[in-house]
Amino acid sequence: MSFKWRLERLHIEKGVYFSPELPPRFSSWKDAFLHSWTKQNLWNAQLPSNTYEAEKDQFHISVSARFKPRDISSYIPSSSKRIDLPLHQRLAIIRMNRNITSQKEAFKILTQQGAWNSGFINDNIEPSNDEHVTQHTTSSIAGGVHSVDSKMNFAILVDNTKGLRKFEFDHVLPDTCSQENVYKTTTMPLVTDFINGIDVTCIVYGQTGSGKTYTMFGQHKHDYSHHDDLPHQYGILPRACSEIFQAIKYRTDNLKLTLTSEVYISYVEIYGNKVSDLLKAGALCGQNSASSQRYVYDGSLEVPVYSLEEVFLLLKLGDEQKRKAATAMNAHSSRAHSVFIIKLKQTQKESGIHCISHFLFADLGGSEQLKKSQPLGFKQEADAFDSKARVKEAVHINLGLLALKQCVESLRRKRHVPYGNSKLTLILSKGLGGKSKTSIIICGAQEECHGKETIAACKFGQICRGVTTTVSKNINMIESLLQDINNDIHECEKKIREHERWDTIEVNEYDDKGAIVNVKMNIVISGAENYRLELANLIKRKKELTGDVFDHDSSVEGFGNAYLYDMGAKVTVPSSC
Known about the structure:
By secondary structure, the protein is of the alpha+beta class. The protein has 17 helices and 19 strands.
């Protein structure tokens, strides 16, 4: 803890801020101190700070992924189109599952499974007596998310063109991750850079209904009045605002330097080619792209704030002005992009140094598929004019997202960045590229029916990270996927043993007149229904991967209520009268 104390002294004596809790990007307080030490001359105009300036000149982007908890109804087989795995992945799975090394033997098993016949069967391959390969199966599997590894920071999804795909991120947040941990992982490091004078941006990206707005703001119709003790459902934006004002108060009371801080808020919405001020009843900002950007950053839209409570009041005011509409995927879908901007102006009186930094929070409209989100005609409430407006909104959303993709890809390849292609990218340009730091949170749904949209969002994350996948990584991916499924099956069986119980229930028997003539006592299994549903899904996923057939053999019969999930035959338990 001595290095944590040194960080506190560095903050008090040199004005270099650091969060009171260790961010995940640092393995120890020593690493955090050595990182902050390079900024020791931040507020000293007479001494050079070459190391810090060199660090500032390097654009950095961090990409995290957050997947919504899987809906329990997704365990029921979906009618979505199945996906065929490529030959090399199917053979690799067979070798690992059967613990064999021969490619020829794996291909023989694959042929006998009926997954690679192509209209003929090789007469030279003799039938096998192996009970695992005697029945023909399909080589298609369900789409969507198949594995999420928050320790190794990757997710495995099924693509309809490339089969199993591994997407690696800087951070992968488990579906049980709290809002507080999401903030600490993705946004808290940006607050440190922001207070130390760097422009930063936090972007949430994903399809409609994937949890972007919840990640950014928190629960719908959130009450921002209780700011002394942040509720657990608060999103990253209110948490960042809370830390910023706590830091300002601490710096005012404890720093040996004389620092003055001024905070300004602006809140805009980008709808097509229009930029609206959400803090002024949706008034338009400028008449063209250049004037809109100038209006946002020249102070015309800024509102000075002096407390966290004032920030929350403005946040609530802006939320009420947002364009929202019900779609088939989200009852409160944001129909435009919104950007919440915090401007911090700091002045060090002794040295005369002025520092202005911006924190941009971009809550992007959902990446749309018109057929799926149904922005028109939802609940049969929209007339023809409103239907056209909904389609237009979806098109504007997608055009802005496309421009953002192009800018991020150009930044990665160090080419000319086409900020002017969209008003969204023009406004984000101050915090995207150059000396800024950026955190992108990819939000996705795990269900099979959302597989295409989740893969598209993950591809955008890979573009941001500049990551390519190699063949050797694919082999490790398949091995990891099988191991994860086996571990999940073992854990699920353990939970079933812990929660399942035998219950006795009364069953009434009635005569023709509806009168009770007899009461029977039936024995039923209960207490682990959801875990059994999950187990059925896991077993089916593994069978799909390995190409094996799930047959109703005696080892499954009588296994609780498994027959309800198409796992074995029903066994009648004798009842006592």
